[in-house]
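Per reviewer request, we include the raw input and output of the structure prediction for the construct analysed in the revised manuscript.
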Amino acid sequence: MSETFLETIRAVDGKVYNLSYHQQRYEDVLKSFGSSDFKNLQDYLNPPVTGLYRCRLIYDTRNIDVTYHKYEKREVASLRLVYDDSVDYSRKSTYRNELESLFEKREECDDILIIKNSLITDTSIANVAFYNSGLWYTPLKPLLRGTTRQRLLDENKIIEKEIRIQDLKEYSKIALMNAMIDFDIITKYDLKDIIC
C-alpha cells in the first residue's frame, strides 16, 4: 500500500470529538488492505488546549502522522452541479486529484454538488442532507461514508435515500456534514436559491 489516507478530527479546547467513528473508519481502511495491525488513534492525539483545531491524521499500514491546524470555516452559500460518472473517493485518501479537478468547475459558486450516474453524492468537502416534510435525507450512495454522516444515521437524525438529480425539487433545504462543521444548514430560504 503506497497510498496514504487521512482522518480529519475535530478538537475543541483539547477535547477530541467522535473519535470512535474515526477509529472505525481507520480500521476499515486497513482491513481492506489485509492489515489487522490497528493502533489506538487516541494515543497519537494531543491537540492544543485552547481553540478549535483540525487534527489531520495521515496514515498507511505502518505509520501515523498527526498535525494540528487552527480551523477557520469556509463559508458555502452556493453550489454548482457537476457531473462525473467515474469519480471514486470511497476511502478518505490524501490523493484528491479527481475531487480537485471537479472543484475547479465551480465557476462563481462556492463549492460543487457532485452528480454520479444521475444520483446526488457529496460536495468536494462534505456529505449532504436534504430536508422535506420534517425529515432530513442523505444520499444512499455518497462518494465517501463520512464519520459525521454515520453518527447522525446511528442517532436516527438523518435517513438514507436514493436522491436523483430530478428529485432536488422535492426538497427545501440542504445541510453539509463533516467532522469539522458537524451538521450545517446552508439554505436560508429555499434550496433552489443556492444551486447556481
